[in-house]
Amino acid sequence: MKNVLFVISGPSGVGKGTIAKKIVERNDNVKLSVSCTTRAPRRGEVDGKDYFFITKEAFENKIAANGFLEYSNHFDNYYGTPKDFVNEKLKTNDVLLEIDVNGGLAVKKNFNEAVLIMILPPSLAEVKRRLEKRHTESEELILRRMDRISYEISKKDLYDYTVVNDDLERAVEEVEKILNNKKNG
């Protein structure tokens, strides 16, 4: 049985990272891809586990070498999915990418078999509350993120599946069901 590349996307603050971590914790055959970024680590993040934290120069060299499945620049920081890491993991496991909406669409262009799952917020007010609760960004940056959310939600019909994260456990179970159906179906 061929291993599958799954992509979980959604706006900032929707809980896609939490859902992805729970999926990996509960499914031994699913490995979380690690993205590269030029942003500074947040408290508790570990290089090589949460992200590969690299310099802007190293990131741009990898772009020039066509080393990313997708990459983007958000709020003056690069983020990208390294092709070599994903291809290596797919040899032995299903791989789960947790990336932004445009990144998910770019992955689908480069890797047509990828299964795209968009995580949606129960409401815009809830997303703003979640972003503020992080205490990692200024009010200005939160407002910039909020402006982007409606754009990202407008892309939901380009995704294979959508899951509303109004209850974490239910959302995780719904994503697991999609993974199992795609893997076994």
Characterize this entry briefly.
The longest helix is centred in the last third of the chain and has 17 residues, at 168-184. With 185 residues, this protein is of the alpha/beta class. The protein is 44% helix and 23% strand.
Descriptive overview:
By secondary structure, the protein is of the alpha/beta class. The protein has a single domain (5-184), classed as Rossmann fold (3-Layer(aba) Sandwich). It is 44% helix and 23% strand. The protein contains 7 helices and 9 strands, in the order E-H-E-E-E-H-E-E-H-E-H-E-H-H-E-H. The chain has helices at 16-26, 56-64, 83-90, 101-110, 124-134, 139-153, 168-184, and strands spanning 5-9, 30-32, 35-37, 51-53, 68-74, 77-82, 94-98, 115-120, 161-164. Helix 1 (16-26) crosses helix 7 (168-184) and helix 5 runs antiparallel to helix 6. It is globular.
Which features would summarize this protein structure in a list?
185 residues; alpha/beta; Rossmann fold; five-stranded parallel sheet; four-stranded mixed sheet; 7 helices; globular
Topology:
Blueprint lengths: L4 E5 L6 H11 L3 E3 L2 E3 L13 E3 L2 H9 L3 E7 L2 E6 H8 L3 E5 L2 H10 L4 E6 L3 H11 L4 H15 L7 E4 L3 H17 L1
Parallel strand pairs: 1-7, 1-8, 2-7, 3-4, 8-9
Antiparallel strand pairs: 3-6, 5-6
